[in-house]
Write a structure and sequence with these properties.
This protein is an alpha+beta fold. It is built from 2 helices and 9 strands; from the N terminus they run ααβββββββββ. The protein has helices at 2-29, 33-36, and strands spanning 38-46, 52-60, 68-75, 88-91, 96-102, 105-110, 117-118, 121-122, 125-129. The chain is elongated, with a radius of gyration of 23 Å.
Length: 130
């Protein structure tokens, strides 16, 4: 009897390792969509007090999709993450400009009508569109 239990324990361990290895290989073979995309910083605009920055960037997710344009508000010392814009995202590459009115007001002007994301407030920052 102890031999059967030992054999089942070994077999269960091998099966667990095989399933874990399979799951790990899927993670590396099929990374998340964000890993397939890349952001190119176009302009970083720092707020008057130097605490925040608005980053305007182009996002490229490969040959089968068109570029998009994003704007993200971040702490000034942080690097732009490999994600879509957190306050504004537009299809294609519309002509926009970004400027701080004051420490808590950001203005985005230009072709802002072709958008997916169009926030008017983000973490205490008011966003206006002209």
């Amino acid at each position: 009897m102890p031999t059967k239990k030992r054999m089942l324990l070994v077999l269960g361990s091998v099966l667990l390792l095989a399933v874990g290895g399979y799951a790990l290989s899927l993670h590396f073979l099929f990374p998340s969509v964000d890993d397939l995309c890349g952001n190119d910083d176009l302009v970083e605009t720092v707020s008057p007090n130097g605490q925040l920055k608005a980053v305007t960037f182009r996002r490229n997710c490969g040959a089968t999709t068109s570029y998009s344009t994003g704007v993200s508000i971040l702490p000034a010392r942080h690097k732009l993450p490999n994600k879509s814009g957190n306050v504004f995202t537009a299809d294609q590459e519309p002509s926009i400009s970004v400027r701080w009115i004051d420490d808590r007001t950001l203005s985005i002007s230009g072709d802002t009508q072709t958008h997916y994301l169009h926030l008017t407030e983000f973490r205490g920052v008011r966003i206006t569109y002209d």
